[in-house]
Amino acid sequence: MVDRFWVWLGTGVVTAGISAALLAGAGVATATDGDSGDGGGTKTSESADPDGSKNDPGAGVTPGSGLKDDGDKTGDDPAGHQPNVNGIKDELKDDELTDELKDELKDEEVTDDDVTDETIGDGLIDENITDTDGDAGEIVDTIEQPDLGDAGRSNEGQDETQSPSLDQTLVDDLDVSLNSELGDVERNALFGTNSQPGEERALVPLTTKFEELTKQTETPEFAPVAFSAPAAAEVNSLATARPLNIVLDVIGTIVFGLYGFVTRLIGGPPVLPPNSTVTVYSSRLRIDCGCAPGEGEEVPVDWYIPENPDPDRIIYLQHGFLAAGPWYSYTAAALAEQTNSIVVAPSITSNFLAYDQCWLGGAPMHQAMAELFDPDNTALADSLGATPYEGELEWEQVVLMGHSAGGGAVSGIARYMTENGDAGRLAGVVLLDGVGMGGKMAEDLSMVPDEIPVYQLAAPKYVWNMFGSGTDELIEARPDAPFYGVTLAGGSHVDTMRGGNFLIQFSQQLVAGFSKPQNVAAAEIVMVGWVNDMFDGDQSEGIYLDSGETRTIDTPAGQATLVDLPNSLRRPYLLNFLEPLMAAGVGLFTLQPGCLREPTGTAASCAGSVAA
């Protein structure tokens, strides 16, 4: 429902803008000023002449209803009257014209020969036959371009190739006006597309000829009116953002920028568990996520180095929504020490309002993360090289591990690594109560080869894991997998989210539900066993249950119960009544990026999109 609100808000803004433009155009079309006594008929692109010596043409006049004569004029129509051909004949009555004028009108009939290319080239018939004082407007000698209201007016001496651009909406309005105001007059309006790619839409003058100026019964004919086809906007890295995207991006930058600052201030640096043999370093990691080639940013990253690291192994640990890497320092240290792997834990923004969608849950970010594991990408090595660590990063395989929304992120990384041709470097994927949104996780994991293991270490279903959405999407992506993972009976969403900051730990436990010590210990045992088996390519250490099996294991903190996935376990929680609203809320976190990167393997670029 929230995402529909944004769509309707954007639609309302656009509609209001169009309405304002039409009203402004109508005001210009009906405005007249100055005196026509200067010879009249000269048209400009301005709405008024500074000295008032020229009137605004086209006020209330229908195209194609002009006259040509050299004589003086007497009498007129009321200002704003739109004469037609029959009306002109009625108004030119004998008792209103001098004998001299009648003779001239009779003698100077316009024939086909009179309307030459030269005549048309000078302009079109002036349509403004009245001035603002109610007197008849002066009839000019040259055929001048018809007034098109606010659609555009040509400058004096302007040729057809320099005619002003015309908005498509005004083109449509002109067509309706011609058909509605001319009554039964025969129409022969033809439209063509003559523009070249990249040109603006141009107006080709409307030409009109009369077989006879007076005493004729035939209706006037209209030469074809041609408008160039709308020019296709070039798509590139500088594509214009929609106003809604810009507003959301500004809001997100401010809100999540302040949130990040406060959490870094309170959360502090990573803290290792007591008696740990692991060393932790902090640096910056370059991630090339952006609309155009070379765009990206450097994010904070923590490196956990075991006492005797195996240079072949690396674990990528991704935090969850609104979290940060240091909040998982105990978990990362345990993984590094017990798997003999280097653990890298970057901190990624949770700003889901970002214009480029380079946030934790955005597909562009997942694609950029996957590129970190390309053999030719040195970003990881450069980041570790910026620390005091003296060793080299010469890994061969990686295990992707993500908590909560981070589980969705590593699923996307696995998908893009596969598309990049780097699936051989992916040892496996571990989801720590991973959460999927809108079917994206299922889509991503379905692209990962079946021989690459993907396991879920879940808590019972409740609001904080979106009632088991991650497990559902894993099963959807791999319907024939022999093993999906386990649920910790009585577990919490934060059982695997362990760090050394007491304030952060207490806050997350208070919000998501307090963890049982035996479940925290069991989670560590399960994930360490899975990771070691993934690197070794077997199932010698991890815990794997049969379909529907329940197993109790001993831990240093007591006995814990594991239940095979899928299952019907649920955790009682105060906010579980929100379950019917969860599906509608997903749309808020799945906004389409304002710009899209090209498919993997090509240069990044930017394309316009709609915020859903």
TrEMBL record:
Disordered as annotated region, ranges: 31-169
SUPFAM superfamilies cross-referenced by the UniProt entry: alpha/beta-Hydrolases
Keyword match Signal: yes
Signal peptide: 1-31
Alphabetic keyword roster: Hydrolase, Signal
Source organism of the structure: Mycolicibacterium gadium (Mycobacterium gadium)
Annotated GO MF terms: hydrolase activity
Skewed-composition ranges (Acidic residues): 106-138
Coiled-coil blocks: none
Protein name: Alpha/beta hydrolase
InterPro entries the UniProt entry points to: AB_hydrolase_fold (IPR029058)
Stretches with biased composition (Basic and acidic residues): 67-79
